[in-house]
Amino acid sequence: MVKEYKSVLQKGGIAIAMVLLVACASTKKDSRIIADFNPDWNFKLGDHPSAIQADFDSNDWRTLDLPHDWSIEGTFSADYPTKPKQGALPAGIGWYRKSFTLPESAKNKSIAIEFGGVFCNSEVWINGHYLGKRPFGYISFSYDLTPYLKFGNQKNYIAVKVDNDAQPSSRWYTGSGIYRNVRLVTTDKVHVAHWGTYVTTPEVSKEKATVDYQVNIQNDAAMQKQLKVVTAILDADNNVVTKLESTETIAANAVLEKGQKFEVKNPKLWDTKNPNLYKVVTKIYEKTTLIDEYETPLGFRFFAFDAEKGFSLNGIPMKIYGVCLHHDNGALGAVANYHAIKRKLTIMKEMGVNAIRMAHNPPSLEMLQLCDEMGFIVQDEVFDVWKLKKVSHDYNKYWDEWHKRDLEDFIKRDRNHPSVMMWSIGNEIREQFDSTGVSITKELAQIVKSLDKTRPVTSALTENVPEKNFIYQSGALDLLGFNYKHADYGTFPERFKGQKIIASESVSALETRGHYDMPTDTIRMWPVKYNAPFDGNDDWTVTAFDNIASFWGTTHEENWKAAKKYDFIAGTFVWTGFDYIGEPDPYPYPARSSYFGIVDLAGLPKDVYYMYQSEWSDKTVLHLLPHWNWKTGQVIDVWAYYNNADEVELFLNGKSLGSKTKQGDELHIAWKVPFEAGTLKAVSRKAGKVVKETEIHTAGEATKIDLKSDKTSIKNDGYDLAYVTVSLQDKDGNPLPKADNLINFKVSGGATIVGVDNGYQASLEPFKADYRKLYNGKCVVILQSNKKAENITLEATTAGNITAATVNIKVE
Q1: CA nearest 789: which of 733, 746, 739, 750?
Q2: Enclosing H/E stretch for 41
Q3: Is 428 considered catalytic here?
Q4: Residues 199, 231: contact at Cβ < 8 Å?
């Protein structure tokens, strides 16, 4: 039987202790046990080389569960070597240590440990034996533990050193530690090898699909084996669609490469609205005993990039509505929690996003699983630098020794995901301007093609003058990705004749949620050029009206107008879907996280979210901004984003201020309104009929706290999260848009507070706390299951005559 890691992490499944108990009670019927290896590690900052020894005393070390990011636990300081560009949080060196036992029955098994990602320079020992080093902090890797293990009552000791001391190691916040999931995989001596399958669909239509499937079967035994290999394709309901079986002979200590071909009638196609998934299940039998079972994701889809028509999926032309996402999860730091990632993707899906660019490194396995399941096209990106560095201690230090292996591992891990449709070998690589860019690009493209020929190879380029761009001149790219310079789009067909083109990165507009500066009649660049002075705000804010951008980019509206104008632009990836820690352009410290997101760091949408929703989604949108708490007589710029309507009429306290309609290619409408307290109301109409109404109200004095949880129940699994949004309301239930009260939290029952945030890019409050100031009326507290089978109560209080609030969440 197969114990699924995914069921433990995302659905609760069997309690952690139960999973490890199963792993320690293996029988011949247990064909493959994938055990959650996250719980009960010991951790300590600093360098502790003697921790590899069995008799090492770790009593003064912390006990914690993985995934873990020690940087996010720190306080902010401009003096850290990471600097504000990397989040102004501590890095350094840390060690992890764990003891575990294995039953005598596991002696005849093969046992490996799989790390989803460790940042960075990880070194691993088992029972004092050195297993290896992986410098690249984003790569997944595995070690065979079998030769060094002890069984029965004897303890095994695993130790992991993580060295993120040399700074800066990146251009953004990386986090530090074993920040992705770890699992212990126990198999028979004969088993499907690590990342040992490759599935492709050479022909796909609604009537039928062909499947080519390759599986590498590994024999760790010292004797030849006779096997029966049964491979089946199952649909989403686990019905067998088709099946093949064969008898095989595999030599001792060898790997058997087996190819199989299938035909599936009337496949349900995978697309962004109906992400129909299948899976390939390989079962290996020795005589009649099942000795291994291995699952590979499968989706039937076909896609094309065209030099004139752009992108099509399953024969249907469509625009790629994409965003770039960094790997951090806000107040959780780099911790790769399935539920945090799902929330992030859900917020993007609601906006109308259909594609994610992984910026600028291999994502977590959970991210790709969710993109498969939720219907996102993925541009999977591997490197931010090649041999030429961008910061002092980035990946260039490891390039010569590691780039080939890292790229191969990246492709082998991710190539079976139907969501992945582009391989990006680099972002804004400096070899664009160096003749070595030709040879390196050819080498990297050849490595990719040797492992997967079904997807185009691309790179995110900044130079759009062909004679200056050596990566382009290599001729090795199947798809040209260009970053920014939207005004040049119209010239691309002439500059790059016959080439397929996508806007791999765009916009870099700047906003702070809930902050509004007027007037809004001009677009401004902060700064106008590199290191130029600019007239910013004393509180390190940027208006949420979409009219300020970085000098290399433009506003959201201007970019999208350009991208949708040209069919040959396959789509755009906006920088960025969410704010992220680090790169706080345009401000210095205390700004410590980015202003680029459509959604703030806490997961609260900025107003421009609704522009995209009006353009990219099927939802009916009518969104008004700003809030309606101002000084009497102050002239306020009022904007509206809308769709599915001919016009919008604005009313102030029941009096019409006139109707407006979008002119030309404009994506919003605007009025100048002298402020008067009361109700601002917008009504959209189509052919004279009301489509939607939206109201905003002037808020009075705060009387109560309001708590809204994104979940009414969570799993009792130690992983599930609930995000609770906090605001203040007046006696009529109107939210106070400028409230900055300090809110204190107390939680009881089956959850722990694991993060607090308010989205303000220059807040120096810690992310790990039981309090947070509201920022522009809101903050968020994150609750995580603590494995107690008790319902959860969160209480929020604040000073003054303001009624406290509680929210109750069930534990299942």
Answers
A1: 750
A2: strand 41-45
A3: yes
A4: no
Catalytic choice (114, 428, 431, 615): 428
pLDDT in tens, 113-157: 999 999 999 999 999 999 999 999 999 999 999 999 999 999 999
pLDDT, tens digit, 9 for 90 and up, residues 317-343: 999 999 999 999 999 999 999 999 999
Peptide bond into 168 cis (omega under 30): yes
- CB-facing half-sphere around the CA of 335: CA atoms within 13 A: 24
Q: 251-284, pLDDT tens digit by residue?
A: 999 999 999 999 999 999 999 999 999 999 999 9
**Terminal alpha carbon distance of the chain:** 25
Q: Which of 787, 792, 772, 785 is nearest to 725 (CA)?
A: 772
Cα distance between residue 768 and residue 274, in whole Å:
38
Q: Is the peptide bond before 623 cis (omega within 30 degrees of 0)?
A: no
Give the bridge partners for 184, in sequence order: 35, 113
Note the pTM of the prediction, 2 decimals.
Answer: 0.96
544 contacts 608 by C-beta, under 8 angstroms? yes
232: nearest Cα among 196, 269, 282: 282
pLDDT for position 100? 98
Q: Count other Cβ atoms within 10 Å, centred on residue 687.
A: 7
Q: Which of 114, 123, 505, 558 is catalytic?
A: 505
Q: Is the pLDDT of residue 11 over 70?
A: no
The label of the residue with tokens 């699994």 reads 717
Going by the DSSP 8-state scheme, the letter that residue 76 receives in this structure is: P
Cβ atoms < 10 Å from Cβ of 266: 10
| Amino acid letter, 262 | F
Q: How far apart are CA 780 and CA 603, in angstroms?
A: 8
